[in-house]
Amino acid sequence: MIHSVSSQRDIAPLVQPEELRNWLLYEDDSIIVFNKPGWLVCHPSKNGPWSSLVGAVRESFELDQVYLVGRLDRETSGLILLAKNKAAGRIWQKSLEQKKVRRSYWAILMGELTEQTNVKGYLGKDPDSPVFVKQRVVGNTNKSKRAETNFLPLLSNNGFTLCSVVTKTGRKHQIRVHAQSMGFPLVGEKLYGLDEQYYLQFCSNGWQEEWLPVLGMKRQALHARTFGFVDEGPSFLAPLPNDFLRFLNDRLDTDSNCEERFEEKSRIWTEAQFQGE
Q1: How many CB atoms lie within 10 A of CB 77?
Q2: Domains of the chain, first to last
Q3: Can you tell me the distance from the alpha carbon of 186 to that of 234, in angstroms, rounded to the nearest whole number?
Q4: What DSSP string describes 19-59?
């Protein structure tokens, strides 16, 4: 049985100091904001300080402690905010819990989703899977948790969909589970995709290049696009990484300006999702 993603044999490279600075989007006396790549874990690991974002930030910025506000799965790229002191960390974390601070995502789905879709219900552990961390849509029980996700197609073409995603709740693997439940799993998805055997083999033997034509990307095509205060306060946007853009260009036939073309539609819709919460 697989107990955690940390058992993966596909060991990520160590962070290089110059790379970390290239990911930096914003810094002031209280916070640091990064555009995290889709191969890096957030929390410290047994492979030393330069094997995680938190560890690398402590080393590079010479900080005894940093406070991660929210988190992203290793293979999810995008916005991550770390506070430099406990007071700032408490303010941001409390604001996140109160939904004064919100996050939105861009994702690429397998299949052509043509209309806005709301998925809601309950999530719980998948008892039929050998993967201990795997979730699935379940009924309302004393162990399940309510989950709601909204998907807005920005472009559908050639059997794929670029969409903007907003979560109303923050459950483990929520977007990935809900995408699969709709019949539109994420491109690159090994656990909640076409066959979980990809994930099991990945944990045992690492990434296999022959999977690329089927999965489309080496990681799940999920990017934390925005993070910040809904009303008054700072808010940040993370540009799409190269692997994400390359897939859009090669498989959805987009042009080099696709990110800018879809940003306004995504922003207007995302802001509307946050109103009244």
Answers
A1: 29
A2: 12-98 (3.30.2350.10), 103-277 (3.30.2350.10)
A3: 30
A4: HHHHHEEEE-SSEEEEEE-TT-BSS--TT-GGGBHHHHHHH
pLDDT higher than threshold 70 for residue 1: no
pLDDT in tens, 192-248: 999 999 999 999 999 999 999 999 999 999 999 999 999 989 999 999 999 999 999
CA distances from 218 to 66, 190, 212 (A): 30, 9, 7
Confidence band for 44, pLDDT divided at 50, 70 and 90: confident
- Collect contacts of 4-10 with beta carbons under 8 A, ≥24 apart: 4/132, 4/133, 5/73, 5/74, 5/133, 6/41, 6/45, 7/203, 8/202, 8/203, 8/206, 9/203, 9/204, 9/205, 9/206, 10/202, 10/206, 10/207
Instruction: Please identify every residue annotated as catalytic.
Output: 73
